[in-house]
């Protein structure tokens, strides 16, 4: 039989990125958390954590994390059916990985009422849409919003729609770098803005235009900062249309190649045995997301 106090210690260490914060969350000493992890490893006969900064789960550790997250959600269903079992009355906490641009645009409005109605707290992990699924694979989250269609084992995925990105720059940047007019061939020779090392959207965009090879770029791991740098003329960037409607209307930002957007699909991944709460959130997102996302061609 599983000892869920030990599994909770493992989950807390991974979710809180360390033993000290895990101890604070569980109301225990750091020594007690360490002892629980050691006892868990002794019982299963192999390590569950890679002792690094931050700690990361081993393969068996990931399987245990997947299990304990699904158990938490199923326990909530049982507590709803048998209220006497819920002796704490605490809100449910759901750990979700999603891309920064969704968080900066449509996500909050989409889930606000649902979280209030369901007494749900969110623990959000921001990852680029191209790599967010690794968090589910590692057992660190119960759900994930990303660009990958294929789910991990034990999970399902549903297409919510696509975020439309447009290549934008400030008028001053365009005047400085494209005095004779914007062309696809000139884009790699002008400074671009990239969200991070895992962001290949600009590469895909240039390939779509028939342009290969590298390009000059700044790295800016902030959706809001990305807009500010674009407005300041540091570079051109692919920006969510949802995020810059005012700037486009006022002329503060200008599309480099009109009618050449690029759409990024967004798939919602969730555990099959995630309980009613995760199923209800999935249904809610399926209904509400099309208000902000475009159909995928």
UniProtKB/TrEMBL annotation:
The lineage of its organism: Bacteria, Pseudomonadati, Pseudomonadota, Gammaproteobacteria, Pseudomonadales. The gene is argP. Pfam families: HTH_1 (PF00126), LysR_substrate (PF03466). GO terms for molecular function: DNA binding; DNA-binding transcription factor activity. This is HTH-type transcriptional regulator ArgP. Homodimer. Belongs to the LysR transcriptional regulatory family. PANTHER family: HTH-TYPE TRANSCRIPTIONAL REGULATOR ARGP, TRANSCRIPTIONAL REGULATOR. SUPFAM superfamilies: Periplasmic binding protein-like II, Winged helix' DNA-binding domain. Keywords: DNA-binding, Transcription, Transcription regulation. It comes from the Bacteria. Residues 2-58 form the HTH lysR-type domain. The keyword Transcription regulation applies. InterPro entries: ArgP (IPR017685), ArgP_gammaproteobact (IPR023490), LTTR (IPR050176), LysR_HTH_N (IPR000847), LysR_subst-bd (IPR005119), WH-like_DNA-bd_sf (IPR036388), WH_DNA-bd_sf (IPR036390). Controls the transcription of genes involved in arginine and lysine metabolism.
